[in-house]
From TrEMBL:
This is FixJ family two-component response regulator. It holds the Pfam family GerE. PROSITE patterns: HTH_LUXR_1, HTH_LUXR_2. InterPro entries: CheY-like_superfamily, Sig_transdc_resp-reg_C-effctor, Tscrpt_reg_LuxR_C, WH-like_DNA-bd_sf. Keywords: DNA-binding, Transcription, Transcription regulation. Transmembrane segments: none annotated. It comes from Novosphingobium chloroacetimidivorans.
Length: 200
């Protein structure tokens, strides 16, 4: 089956970027080349799979940028002759797949299809984690303590006793905490805390 895919290519190396674009020109893969993450972030495409050249820190940087801008694309990392350690690290950082360049158009098409399938199934937990963390960073220490209490199933009265404040003060912190997290309900706030990997 032929997949028509939009490939968002990020690679600092002009020559390699050109050779990848040229190699895929005859296939059904449409390539949008970018020199770096900042260039891509100036105009996020409507859809596609990102194929990024794997260099130290590029995948975490890309994921953070997507989280900040509220964008989400599956990521395939690539480089020439990757080591097993590099591949494992890229996947831990949030890539859904890894390919070694050079790769044929047919194999790349399969990798793109797998990336889209994986991302549709799971959504990107890494992006959600980074987004949740950035929301939690807005909370004061006290609001975070109230969230911990709420996540542990404690009532306002019990949270107040634990923190030596009145239930009314807990209520105020709780309202501020929900507001800063952009959560309508306590359950939503707990989900954000779980996504940020703060609650076990």
């Amino acid at each position: 089956m032929e997949h028509v895919s939009n490939l968002i290519l990020i690679d600092r190396d002009t020559r390699r970027r050109a050779s990848i674009s040229h190699a895929l020109a005859a296939s059904s893969i449409h390539v949008e080349p970018f020199e770096n993450i900042d260039e891509l972030a100036m105009a996020w495409p409507r859809s596609g799979v990102i194929m990024i050249h794997d260099e130290a820190g590029t995948i975490p940087d890309l994921i953070e940028k997507m989280a900040i801008d509220g964008e989400w694309y599956p990521i395939i990392a690539f480089c020439e002759e990757p080591s097993p350690r590099q591949i494992v690290q890229a996947v831990l950082d949030g890539a859904v797949d890894y390919v070694a360049w050079p790769i044929g158009a047919e194999d790349l098409n399969d990798a793109l299809a797998r990336a889209i399938e994986k991302s549709e199934g799971a959504g990107n937990t890494k992006v959600r984690e980074v987004m949740a963390r950035s929301r939690l960073d807005r909370l004061t220490k006290r609001e975070r303590e109230v969230l911990d209490g709420v996540a542990s199933g404690l009532s306002n009265r019990l949270i107040g006793e634990k923190l030596s404040i009145s239930p009314r003060t807990v209520e105020i912190h709780r309202a501020n905490m929900l507001n800063k997290l952009g959560a309508n309900h306590t359950s939503e706030a707990i989900r954000i805390a779980i996504e940020a990997a703060l609650v076990n």
